Amino acid sequence: MSRILGFVRDMLMANVLGAGMIADAFFVAFKFPNFFRRLFAEGAFNAAFVPLFAGRLTSDGREVALRFAAEVAAVMWTGLLVFSIAAIMSMPWLMYVIAPGFVDEPAKFGLAIELTQITFPYLMFMALVALMGGMLNSIDRFAATAAAPILLNIVLISVMLLLHFGVLSLPGQALAWGVAAAGLGQFIWIALACRREGILFVLPRPRLTPGVKRLLALMVPALIGAGVVQINLVVDVILASTLPEGSVSFLYYADRVNQLPLGVVGVAVGIALLPLLVRQLRSGEYEAAQYSQNRAIEFALTLTVPAAVALIVIPGPIITVLFQRGAFDAADASATADALSAFAVGLPAYVLIKALTPGFYAREDTKTPVKIAIFAVAANIGLALLLMQVLAHAGIALATAIAAWMNAGFLGLILVRRGFLVFDARLLNRLPRLVLASVVMGAALWWAADFGADWLNGREPVRILALVVLVAGGGALFAGTAAVTGAVRLSDLRAMMSRS
Fold this sequence. Notes:
Elements: H1 2-17, H2 21-59, H3 62-89, H4 91-98, H5 106-119, H6 122-138, H7 143-164, H8 171-197, H9 210-225, H10 228-240, H11 247-282, H12 286-313, H13 315-323, H14 330-344, H15 347-356, H16 358-361, H17 367-391, H18 393-417, H19 425-451, H20 453-456, H21 460-485, H22 490-499
Helix pairs in contact: 1-7, 1-11, 2-3, 2-5, 2-6, 2-8, 2-9, 2-10, 2-11, 3-6, 5-8, 6-8, 7-8, 9-17, 10-17, 10-18, 11-12, 11-14, 11-15, 12-14, 12-15, 12-19, 13-14, 14-18, 15-18, 17-18, 19-21
């Protein structure tokens, strides 16, 4: 539901903002606190907090675990309050780093500073949402945390409807205030969910207790290890700001489409797998942990390999139907489609990272992923600087995809070498069949898109219907081919989805 509403949100943004100055400035303002949210609150924090909280819950009981969570929350809230105030005050200087390409355009540069200062408090609320969401996930309550982003989309959709009907003016500022308000709304939502489950706590005086110190020690390397994809996406924004106007927006819209399978599958796998592995390893169930790791990889690839093939083969019709209207013209759609095709090359890798890193974090090893991440970030920057000279913004997206494959490859290799991951016969048997089914679907989509080009580029109702038929047909062909080849069994997929 969150991702579907996210598409509605982005379609309205494309219609209202297009891919010009205000859009570029707002997407930078939205990306910056989101980067820190995903890096600190969801990435590094969850990687360190969930194993410690789940471990205490299993061995010491709920009261001890909740006391630990309250101590962590007090320190985290205080630290982020200081950090946010410092960031807001220094934003005029930080913007030289975040979007150096805006410097030559004073109006865009000033607007980006103003909007980022408005959106930044979103980070503080989302940090507490991540902590309380991690607590809920540790007791196998996933729905409330998964549903929280729906509130952000509802708020921003409401803002854009008010802009469309002339109730609000200044679209950039209105959307920025909407982001801040949505952060407060998500915090209230998740706090009420914790209260229902009896795990809501009162913030104590912030103190660096032994448990908090242990968490911070695990978080330091995880800041990069868990957030490498986010770091790469911020590098994309920095580099795209030096390209012609609209490049930041092209990458944003393309990434939003690419995020659908990543958000639905990758996040689900990571969230469900980490507490499960912690419990199995703490209980000495090593074979069960191996089985869980293999099924997570199988589940991730089953849903993302065909999705990646489809996004690579038919990016044009997808972007045209979703975004080409209002201020977003055909040239914008073509440029965004190029970026989407490049991002999609790395889609399975992005999700594999989510499936593989819990194998380290469940063993309280946050150092190994950081070493791999440093290499991946360096590779991404180098490749982006090289490829953007030839492919412009699409080169930046392709560099991110290649770096993601490097990251996933090294994570898997090290887990295998340490004996923490042994690919079972089921996974090895099904993977080539899965690739075959995806290739068959991709070839059919390519032919069908060419055959139905007139419909896909026709009037809006016609092209929407044509895309629905194209996607549904491709999905049906993949499902049929996967079933015939033995790549997927419906009962197995249903069992994996019940956990994710």
